[in-house]
Amino acid sequence: MKKKTMVYAVMLLMIVNMLAGCGKRKGEPAAVMPEGYCFTDALGQEVTVKNPERVVALMGSFAEVWLSAGGSLAGVTDDAFDERGMELSAETVSVGKYNSPNVEKIIALNPDLVLLSSETKEHAALKEVLKQAGITAAYFKVTYFEDYLSMLKTCTEITGREELYEKNGLAVNTEIEEILSGAKAKEPPSVLLLITYSGGAAAQNSKTMTGRMLNDLGCKNIADENQSLLKEFNMESIVKEDPDYIFVIPMGNDDALAVKNLKESIEKNPAWNGLAAVKNNRYILLPKEKFLYKPNEKWGESYQTLSEILYGKK
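Request: output the structure for the sequence above.
Response:
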C-alpha cells in the first residue's frame, strides 16, 4: 500500500507541476514543458507550441515582432508589405488583409502557429475554424509598449532566442526610461491629439497608443476630461481649452489627402487660426510609421520624437 501511495503521490505532483506551468497569467513568461512551450494568450487560452517553423502572422506588426524574436514566416497579411514595407522571403505568402484574412490560404500553408489580434473581430471569428483544422492559434493584444514587451518575451521564449528580448525589448525599455526621466516641464503642456480620416478628424485620449506616450511625457490631453470630443469634433470646446500643442496622425496611405481633408473640414473655421497652437507653429503632423502603426523595437524613437517636440533636444 505504501508503494502505491508513493506512486500516486508522484503522479499527482507531476500533474500539478504541468498545470502550474500552463496556468500562467497573461503576460507571464512561457513555461518550458517537455511537449513544448506553454503560455496563456490574450483570450485566456492555454497555448502550447514546440519549435514552430511555419508561422503565419495576421497583422504586420505581429509579423515584425516574430522576426524580431528570431523566427521566420510562412504567411503574412498585406499590411506587412503595404504599410510596414517589410522585406520578406520570396517564399512568404500573403493571406489577405489583416481585417479580412483568407482562412483557406492560411490552412493551405499548414502552419505550426498562427499569431492573431484579440482586438480584431475578424481574427476572433477564426478561433474555432483553426481549432477544428488542428492549427495552433495564439492571440495577443498590443496597444502600449509594455504589451509589445510582453509579446516579444513570449515569442523569444518560443524561439529560444532570449538574447533578442534583451536587444529588441529591454534595451528599448532602458532607452524610454532615460527619455522620460529627462522630459520635465514646470507646467504640463496641454495637447489635442487628432486622427484624420476621409470625413474629417476625431480626437483621441490617453488610452490610445500615442495618447499614452504623450501622457507618459507629462502632457495633459484635453480629451481626457472633455469626453464629448471623442464622439464629436467640437470647435467651441477646443477653443475654450486652447491646447498648447495640436498633434495630427494621418490615416490611409496618402498624407497629402489627409492634409487636404483637414483644410476642408477644420482649418476653414476662422476660430482655428486663433488657437495658440496654430499661431505658435505647434500644430504638428506626426508620421504614421511611428504613431499610427505599432513601432515595436523603434518605440524609443517614437518617444524621442515627441520629447524633442515638447521639450527640445537634450
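The CA atoms of residues 226 and 282 lie 21 Å apart.
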